Amino acid sequence: RMTAFKVWWLLLWRLIWQVHLSADYSYNPIPMWGWHGVTVMQDLECVVTMLLFFAAIALAVWCWWKGQKGIAFFILLYFINYVPTGNFLFIIGSIMAERFMYLPLIGFAFCGSIWLNLNTVAKIVGGAWFLIGFAYLAVSTRLFQRKPKTIDFSEA
To answer: CA-CA distance, 76 to 71, in Å (whole number)?
Structure first.
């Protein structure tokens, strides 16, 4: 289930930066948590994304508690729509697909529109968090130098 958190981050990043989309993410392109041949860094990525996952849910609860019910609603709408297809509750037939993000995109888009209407200080804080996420992505892809994973159909 730890791999599901990393897949969540990959799909969330695909909502922000739509590069290297694929019609099929088969079993091998996404390293599984704790399997042979998986590096410590890849396992650490799963742990970090799990912490980000719960931090985003905690952000929604904090926003609700502070009276920002609109942003809390749309963050929770994103998660409520994503969790059934995210391999968290039960294993489904596919590990990752952009089609799993169609309904969560509603909550994501409304959160983006609310963010665009914030004041300058709030945008700076949000931008700082975005840069932290971007730095994590840069480290995990070795400064964007690692080639995207491909699927070889020649053996089929």
So the answer is: 9
> Residue 78 — φ and ψ, nearest 5°?
-60, -50
For residues 9 and 21, give the distance between their C-alpha atoms in angstroms, rounded to a whole number: 14
Nearest residue to 2 (alpha-carbon basis) of 39, 51, 75, 36? 51
Rounded mean pLDDT of 105-126? 79
- Does an H or E element contain 12, and which? helix 2-16
Amino acid at residue number 47: V
The CA distance from 105 to 87, in Å, is: 18
Distance CA 36, CA 50 (A): 21
Question: What confidence tier does 34 reach under pLDDT thresholds 50, 70, 90?
Answer: low
- Range with the largest mean pLDDT of 2-16, 32-46, 63-77, 89-103: 63-77
Closest CA to 9 of 125, 146, 122, 139: 139
